[in-house]
Amino acid sequence: MEHRIEQIKKQLHAQSYKLTPQREATVRVLLEREDDHLSAEDIYLLVKEKAPEIGLATVYRTLELLSELKIVDKINFGDGVSRYDLRKEGAEHFHHHLVCTECGSVEEIIEDLLGDVEKIVETNWSFQVKDHRLTFHGICKQCQEAVVKSTS
Amino acid sequence: MEHRIEQIKKQLHAQSYKLTPQREATVRVLLEREDDHLSAEDIYLLVKEKAPEIGLATVYRTLELLSELKIVDKINFGDGVSRYDLRKEGAEHFHHHLVCTECGSVEEIIEDLLGDVEKIVETNWSFQVKDHRLTFHGICKQCQEAVVKSTS
DNA sequence: CTTAATGCAAAACTTTTGCAAAGTT
DNA sequence: AACTTTGCAAAAGTTTTGCATTAAG
């Protein structure tokens, strides 16, 4: 954790940005909730517990900055809000996501399953791929089991 | 075109919805601009040319209805608006999209390139895939050529 | 005739911006 | 001192809702 903070601090300094207390508090929330996909509002409320004086605008500005530096990924699952997802250390791509249409849970796939598909796109569409967003919609393991139970 | 309208009319009636003139005008705009990815506002302005009395709220309600019936797909490319994409006849899945980070153009891939990946997800993550959203970000053919020209 | 759909305006949200004050180097 | 960052409030923008009126089957 401290190591990640240190690392992010360096990334910021490299572009002559500062790791202010507000930014650090925001990053800590993202680290603590690494598996979640929090909205700006969610993050704001959590950061407020650590740094009560922070403003929502600062959270937005921080998230935008972290997005630009590719420290977090901004994703949108189609409910009216943007969500923010911390990249794993050294990861070059967005995670893939599994969104359950029954219970709304979001699971992450860290592995990059798109290598072959990207090659096809580069070759057949002459499109130079830099990044991707892949989300599957369907039914998660838990909900599948729940259906089996309730109908048997 | 008339055939698609007829088909959509049946789909609506099957759920006891009506194909009102406003809904028909909206569908016609979507058909005419099938390759585009229009926002609700874009669609509203185009529908207004055919049916000047229509209200923006009706367009939103129509698009939501068409979304539910899986006649259109609602997508979000991360600029603050939702965009609407008519499904091809009989298509079961979202198209894939290629978004150019240089010029903002959006290209569609109709072919489904995710068959193998979906199998992997179903097997290794026990997730029952119903649909997917795949967008690549990168540099389109035209912009690649533009760079070559300007630097040579 | 009964229910569904529309248009308008207002409301609800999310996100961005302007600006004076505060903090950093 | 020069510059960046912050908090607040206001603004901007998109989408949804309430409700009286109109239209459809």
Automatic annotation (TrEMBL), chains A, B:
SUPFAM superfamilies: Winged helix' DNA-binding domain (SSF46785). The keyword Transcription regulation applies. The keyword Coiled coil does not apply. Coiled coil: none annotated. Pfam families: FUR. Keywords: DNA-binding, Repressor, Transcription, Transcription regulation, Zinc. Belongs to the Fur family. This is Fur family transcriptional regulator. It comes from Lentibacillus salinarum. The lineage of its organism: Bacteria, Bacillati, Bacillota, Bacilli, Bacillales.
